[in-house]
Design a protein that fits this description.
The structure is a single chain. The model has no long low-confidence stretch (mean pLDDT 92). The chain is mainly alpha-helical and 255 residues long. Helices cover 85% and strands 0% of the residues. The chain contains 11 helices and no strands. It is globular and about 55 Å long. Helix 2 packs across helix 4, helix 8 packs antiparallel against helix 10 and helix 10 crosses helix 11. The longest helix is centred in the middle third of the chain and has 35 residues.
Length: 255
Amino acid sequence: MKKALKDNLFYIIFLVLTGLIGGVFTAFYIIESTDPALMAEMLAQIGGKNAYVAVNTLQVVSYSLIFGLLGKLISKKVGLWKEVKLEGKKVLKNAAIGFIGGVVIMLLDLFVFSAGADGEAIRNSLILSLSPNSIIASFTYGGIVEELMMRLFLMSFIALILWKIFCRKESIVPTKILVIANVLVAIAFAAAHLPATAMTMGLTPMIVLRCFVLNGSMGLVFGRAYRKDGIAYAMLSHIFAHVGMKSLSLIVILL
């Protein structure tokens, strides 16, 4: 136990700090982006703003620690764990893919899925997405904690189960199993965004399709980065997807 703690000390510190920052700023962003009447009712039930922030932060720290540690253990079993070693070409590749992907899905969102929607409401949503709370939450909770949950843990876990069921005679996990796991997790990643989407936009067939097309496609991108280069690069790609989306949002607002 002592050796395991020592070997993972900096990793655990990283998980806790990320969870703390992501939890606090995600809570603040939810408060500022939720309908005031609905938020007031929620805060009254939970005991006020400070209590809500504390509960949300504890929850996110728990997610970060549990899925980060279990994910590392399982990812080693399926051969997906790679020690963090940032290489220039891989950094540029994954950052660029994430940024371009973020811009593309933002363009699709603005000009395909939001076509005919209220322009003022879209503008207000874009402005809100550029708030400090939104930016920090998207980089920490979105870019890091979500990758710990969806890729490091869930994708690895699904790959492990599929391997043991369908390819148990193989000494290592076949690539096809990893690809299937990525597809399944990308679908789950998209579905996980539905509750937040429902809270802010409601749910219609077009909005559900939007959620699966936009979030699902990026889930595939992040999963491939994880499979090819490691979880650090999946996080990097995810963070730069948000950079791309927010950069385009700023341009649209200024225009």
